[in-house]
């Protein structure tokens, strides 16, 4: 009986050792044998994860206290030409396909009387109750991405300088009572992004590679330190049963 147990122990030790060798070999192959990219994403994903953590990869929101006072209102009016088929910005503030935009900067999100907002815009209002400069900047850059389910059928204004001029123009139309903040050094080029300064989307993007690069991380762990190899071996008998 005890001899049998002894035999089992020896067998288990032998199997465990064999398993560790196999796992280690697979790990070493994965590390050094990179030409046939069975999963070409590995190298790119690691690079992305590194880039995501770097300050250079994070696009800062504009420093409104600096850019608004010097913004080109005439250029903003020209950009607004892309909006006039659906919006007006007159004091009468009539709704068209889209809500009247007189005084929209600093106005309540989905807050213009008499306009039937989409459910997506109403849900957005619960999270972002005011059209702040930052909210307008992100929404107008890519409406459908920033406000999921919006019925504003507009692709967005990609160029940051055009969006800034447009927002300055909107501010001049019924929103001059909404204050321009003081200049914020943490938003100026070269500043280390303050906690919370990064917009939501880049944070998500930075998190994604961490999840998908899990196999890449597991490989160095197996070869790097004995502890994970033991853990892997400990799992194996359970799997074999
Ligand atoms: C094709 C029509 C269309 C165009 C073009 C368009 N919009 Fe809109 N816009 C809408 C609609 C419709 C809504 C309501 C969205 C909702 O309820 O989801 C809206 C909503 C908005 C809101 C939110 C207003 C509020 O009261 O909450 C802002 C701000 C806005 N648009 C600005 C602009 C600007 C600036 C432009 C031009 C760069 C523009 N839109 C171009 C149709 C349009």
From TrEMBL:
Residues 188-241 have a biased composition (Low complexity). SUPFAM superfamilies: Cytochrome c (SSF46626). Keywords: Electron transport, Heme, Iron, Metal-binding, Transport. GO terms for molecular function: electron transfer activity; heme binding; metal ion binding. Residues 71-174 form the Cytochrome c domain. Residues 178-241 are annotated as: Disordered. It holds the Pfam family Cytochrom_C. It comes from the Bacteria. InterPro entries: Cyt_c-like_dom, Cyt_c-like_dom_sf, Cyt_c_1A/1B. PANTHER family: CYTOCHROME C. This is Cytochrome c class I. It comes from Asticcacaulis excentricus (strain ATCC 15261 / DSM 4724 / KCTC 12464 / NCIMB 9791 / VKM B-1370 / CB 48).
């Amino acid at each position: 009986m005890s001899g049998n147990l002894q035999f089992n122990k020896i067998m288990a030790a032998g199997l465990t050792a064999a398993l560790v060798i196999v796992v280690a070999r697979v790990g070493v192959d994965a590390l050094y044998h990179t030409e046939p990219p069975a999963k070409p994403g590995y190298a790119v994903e690691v690079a992305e994860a590194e880039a995501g953590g770097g300050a250079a990869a994070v696009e800062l929101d504009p420093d409104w206290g600096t850019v608004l006072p010097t913004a080109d209102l005439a250029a903003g009016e020209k950009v607004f030409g892309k909006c006039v088929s659906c919006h007006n910005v007159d004091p009468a503030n009539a709704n068209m396909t889209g809500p009247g935009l007189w005084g929209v900067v600093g106005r309540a999100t989905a807050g213009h009387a008499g306009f039937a907002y989409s459910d997506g815009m109403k849900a957005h209002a619960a999270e972002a109750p005011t059209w702040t400069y930052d909210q307008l900047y992100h929404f107008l850059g890519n409406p459908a991405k920033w406000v999921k389910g919006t019925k504003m059928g507009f692709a967005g204004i990609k160029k940051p300088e055009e969006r800034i001029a447009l927002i300055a123009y909107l501010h001049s139309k019924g929103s001059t009572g909404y204050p321009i903040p003081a200049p914020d050094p943490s938003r100026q080029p070269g500043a280390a992004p303050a906690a919370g300064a990064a917009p939501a989307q880049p944070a998500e993007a930075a998190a994604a590679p961490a999840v998908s690069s899990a196999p890449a991380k597991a490989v160095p762990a197996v070869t790097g330190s004995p502890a994970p190899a033991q853990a892997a071996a400990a799992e194996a008998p359970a799997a074999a049963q």
